[in-house]
């Protein structure tokens, strides 16, 4: 049987947080200081971070992702009862240097060697994204690092996906869009990207318009999927 290959792809665009970078690695580094509620804190922090982006977009009350990340952390600390003294600022600093998933550098290297354009398209604030990319040593492997901060609205607003089309000069249906966030995959699909869902935790399919063209457990097999 011949392998399945995505054809007519000119660019690969990646969500950052949860897709290229492990959002739980910030708390993971400070687990001993956070204490027994470390995992709960990390999950609540991430959930509230996303919820606040959606709600702020609906309200028309934009604040950049660094601000939102801090608000979400403050909520998570209060919800779990973890004392913020001596840990809150350290967690925020750790978020600037999240661990890249182990397969990411080699995967991006293969895409670049094959001549594909590569980019991040993220809710992240530009300084946050620059810090994460530099900490992981990915700068030379990316053509663009695109932030919603240019638009003052978060994904999945269609204007965010249009930003990648405009900056890369590539048609929407020639862009393979990779995200671990199912809601982001559905938003990208409705816009016209060709999404690959990086379903790292085996989540069920969302009941939303659109959907993934392909699903993978991590990014290791993306070059093969693209016939590289």
Class from secondary-structure proportions: alpha/beta
**In what range is the share of β-strand residues?**
5-15%
CATH class category name of the largest domain: Alpha Beta
Please tally the helical runs, counting DSSP H or I stretches of 4 or more residues: 10
Total strands: 6
Shape summary: globular
- Domains, number: 2
The unreliable regions are: none
What topology, given as strand order, has the largest sheet? 3-2-1-4-5-6
Q: CATH fold name of the largest domain, please?
A: Rossmann fold
CATH architecture of the largest domain: 3-Layer(aba) Sandwich
What's the helical proportion of residues? Answer: 40-55%
Give the CATH superfamily of the largest domain. HAD superfamily/HAD-like
Structure overview:
The mean pLDDT is 97. This protein has a 6-stranded parallel sheet, sandwiched between helices. The protein has helices at 25-29, 31-34, 38-59, 65-80, 88-95, 104-113, 126-136, 158-168, 182-191, 222-225, and strands at 11-14, 117-122, 144-147, 175-179, 194-198, 214-216. Helix 3 crosses helix 4. With 228 residues, it is of the alpha/beta class. The chain has 2 domains: 11-22 and 99-225, 3-Layer(aba) Sandwich (Rossmann fold), CATH 3.40.50.1000; 25-95, DNA polymerase, domain 1.
């Amino acid at each position: 049987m011949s392998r399945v290959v995505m054809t007519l792809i000119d660019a690969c665009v990646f969500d950052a947080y949860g897709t290229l970078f492990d959002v739980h690695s910030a708390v993971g580094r400070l687990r001993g200081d956070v204490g027994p509620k470390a995992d709960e804190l990390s999950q609540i922090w991430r959930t509230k971070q996303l919820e606040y982006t959606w709600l702020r977009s609906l309200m028309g009350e934009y604040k950049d992702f660094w601000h939102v990340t801090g608000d979400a952390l403050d909520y998570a600390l209060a919800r779990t009862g973890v004392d913020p003294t001596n840990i809150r600022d350290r967690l925020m600093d750790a978020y600037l240097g999240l661990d890249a998933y182990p397969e990411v550098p080699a995967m991006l290297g293969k895409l670049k060697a094959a001549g594909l354009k590569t980019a991040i398209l993220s809710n992240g604030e530009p300084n946050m994204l620059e810090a994460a990319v530099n900490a992981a040593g990915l700068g030379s492997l990316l053509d663009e690092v695109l932030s919603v901060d240019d638009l003052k609205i978060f994904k999945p607003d269609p204007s965010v996906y249009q930003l990648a089309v405009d900056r890369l000069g590539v048609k929407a249906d020639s862009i393979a869009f990779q995200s671990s966030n199912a809601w982001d995959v559905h938003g990208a699909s409705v816009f016209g990207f060709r999404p690959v869902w990086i379903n790292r935790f085996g989540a069920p399919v969302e009941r939303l318009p659109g959907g993934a063209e392909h699903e993978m457990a991590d990014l290791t097999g993306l070059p093969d999927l693209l016939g590289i």
